[in-house]
Design brief:
It is a single chain. By secondary structure, the protein is mainly alpha-helical. Helix content is 70%, strand content 0%. The chain has nine helices and no strands. The chain is globular, with a radius of gyration of 18 Å.
Length: 223
């Protein structure tokens, strides 16, 4: 049987790991074994993609330099780099990052950059989001890595932005419900079922996009 660390299909590998964790009834020993196997797979998959690892490190190195003296600044960039490295296996058959991936990672790191909380920062984040999506579709470079990065870029940036700059408690609660709860719900469902659930893709109603526009516009026009 193929080792989890060697499996090219990231979703299949994740399902194997989750199934083993569920069979272990989530006891501490099973959790430690799950984390260890997942970490080994992540590091091995990153080592198999030296070009992507180098590109990722160069991009975050540039962001790290620009983030000097800011809060959350360099800690935010370092965390972004570590999470991205641990998920390079999601590139699957690809061995390098794309322009769309780079734009997504830049959006995720806006809180650490100069102007990340400025008046037009929300509009800039929306623009980067639209640009990376269109590029990925036009160039045919969609990947599980891009989807993961996009999801967490949205959650990280908009949660930070709303809780830091939005005075309305109602909007803050809506932000938590929109970006944090789905991540918690999907994680809980995966642990319970022992398999990764399919991410819902709303077509007619996109509450996250609507809330982004509302928060960005309120910040842009606030005196």
């Amino acid at each position: 049987m193929e080792s989890v660390s060697e499996m090219a299909d990231s979703r299949a590998a994740t399902n194997v790991l989750l199934a083993e964790l569920r069979e272990g009834h989530l006891v501490p020993a099973a959790v430690v074994r799950f984390l260890g196997r997942a970490a080994r797979r992540s590091l091995r998959q990153a080592a198999r993609r030296p070009r992507a690892l180098a590109e990722l490190t160069a991009l975050h190195g540039a962001l790290y330099a620009v983030a000097s003296g800011r809060r959350p600044g360099r800690r935010w960039v370092t965390t972004s780099w570590a999470l991205a490295v641990l998920h390079l296996g999601l590139l699957e058959q690809r061995t390098c990052l794309t322009t769309a991936d780079a734009l997504t990672l830049m959006r995720a790191n806006l809180p650490a950059l100069p102007g990340g909380g400025g008046r037009i920062s929300g509009v800039l984040a929306i623009g980067l989001d639209l640009a990376d999506g269109r590029l990925a579709r036009h160039q045919g470079t969609n990947s599980p890595f891009g989807e993961y990065a996009d999801t967490f870029a949205d959650a990280a940036y908009w949660m930070w932005f709303t809780l830091r700059h939005e005075p309305s408690r109602t909007v803050q609660v809506a932000a938590v419900a929109t970006w944090a709860l789905p991540v918690v719900a999907v994680t809980g469902l995966a642990l319970r079922c022992g398999t990764m659930p399919e991410r819902p893709r709303p077509v007619l109603l996109r509450p996250a996009a609507t809330l982004q526009a509302v928060v960005a516009l309120r910040h842009l026009t606030r005196r």
